[in-house]
Amino acid sequence: MTIAVTGATGQLGRLVLEELLSSQEPGSLVAVVRDAAKAGELRARGVQVRVADYSDAVALTEALTGVDRLLLVSGSEVGSRVAQHANVVNAAQAAGVGFIAYTSVLAADTTELILAPEHKATEELIRASGLDFALLRNGWYTENYAQTVATAKQTGAVVAASGDGRVASATRADYAAAAAAVLSSAGHDGRTYELSGDYAWDFKELATAITKIAGREVVYRPVSAPELVEVLTTAGLDEGTAGFLAALDLDTKAGLLATVTGELSGLIGRPTTPLLQALEASTAS
After folding, report:
1. What number is the average pLDDT over the span 255-273?
2. How far apart are CA 2 and CA 143, in angstroms?
3. 3-class DSSP string for the chain
4. Is residue 189 in a domain?
């Protein structure tokens, strides 16, 4: 059985391959990458490295030839992802891939989360493709708060427009372990997994965790969305990025990231990584 992972040198893809290397023969794994130079370590360990960009349909078909099971790691170019993902799905069909798993987002077909529409559209493409599939609806990554930790260390405050909203986050390594489990075992065809951390924390708890890391008191300072935009633009962010981050905070305030399902820990056979432990690890790295 040959397993391929797209975005294999990215933050999530490389962790999925690392998990797979613990149970699969290196030669049975395919790393699909944009830049072969970044995959030297994988090649040295015996992983097949194939170069293909999400926008290059021909290269994708060549890269996926002979692949039995594929993980499509969602692209990072917001606004372009549906077309890019369609190229991967079409290439998988053309290459005769038997099974595709996709890293989506929690409740992609029903949530109002600002990031959801492209994921929902990709899920629809996959369902219509005729391929056997599994949808891995990943919740929030704890690593997304690395910059929050860095800023709070300096300022003594977590400033957000999230109100009393909660976040059931987990680490990329947690989600990678789930993806590897689905890719390397049977019984997942047609499944949709709602994946999230075992506990939904609030921003007061986030501030408490950062206090322990920083060695100084850190407090949570809730603000309105317009106030947050002003804070972020004053710090140097452009209006578009600041507005996007404020919108994410409002989604958090609305409870869109708070869902705890237990499906992630069920797939990986262990509890998800606690908030403080995850933040300490991301800070150290």
Report:
1. 97
2. 30
3. CCEEEECCCCCCHHHHHHHHHCCCCHHHEEEEECCHHHHHHHHHCCCEEEECCCCCHHHHHHHHCCCCEEEECCCCCCCCHHHHHHHHHHHHHHHCCCEEEEEEECCCCCCCCCCHHHHHHHHHHHHHCCCEEEEEEECCEHHHHHHHHHHHHHHCEEEECCCCCEECCECHHHHHHHHHHHHCCCCCCCEEEEECCCCCEEHHHHHHHHHHHHCCCCEEEECCHHHHHHHHHHCCCCHHHHHHHHHHHHHHHCCCCCCCCCHHHHHHCCCCCCHHHHHHHHHHC
4. no
pTM: 0.96
Does residue 281 share a domain with residue 231? Answer: yes
Say yes or no: 153 and 282 in one domain: yes
Task: Domain of residue 229: give its range.
Answer: 140-170+196-259+273-285
Q: Is the dihedral of CA 282, 262, 140, 185 positive or negative?
A: positive
* pLDDT tens per residue across span 101-146: 999 999 999 999 999 999 999 999 999 999 999 999 999 999 999 9
Q: What is the pLDDT of residues 219-240, one digit of tens each?
A: 999 999 999 999 999 989 899 9
28, part of any domain: yes
